[in-house]
Amino acid sequence: MKNEKAEAQIARYERIIKAATVMTEAEKSALVEWEKKHVTGDGEFGTSDWPSLEPIISRISH
């Protein structure tokens, strides 16, 4: 079971990396603004927590 979880996490990060390569300029700007407010270094949020990431991943995961 642990191996399946690790593989799922790796696949998720691979999708995040792919999403970063297809983001529009507007999406990139929105991410930067979100990060300024939420990614403060306290560990509560990271870039991968951006709520608008899911629609981008859906767009590339046909």
Protein topology:
Elements: H1 2-22, H2 25-38, H3 53-60
Helix pairs in contact: 1-3
So what's the overall shape?
Answer: flat
Beta-strand residue fraction: under 5%
CA(first)-CA(last) distance = 27 Å
Oligomer: single chain
Structural class per helix/strand content? mainly alpha
Radius of gyration: 13 Å
What is the number of helical segments per DSSP (H or I, 4+ residues)?
A: 3
Total number of domains: 1
Number of strands: 0
Low-confidence stretches: none
Order of helices and strands: HHH
Mean pLDDT: 95
- Share of helix among residues? 55-70%
Largest sheet geometry? none
Summarize, please:
By secondary structure, this protein is an all-alpha fold.
Explain how this protein is built:
The chain has one domain (2-60). The protein has 62 residues and is an all-alpha fold. The model has no long low-confidence stretch (mean pLDDT 95). It has helices at 2-22, 25-38, 53-60. Helix 1 (2-22) crosses helix 3. The protein contains three helices and no strands.
Q: What are its keywords?
A:
mainly alpha; 62 residues; single chain
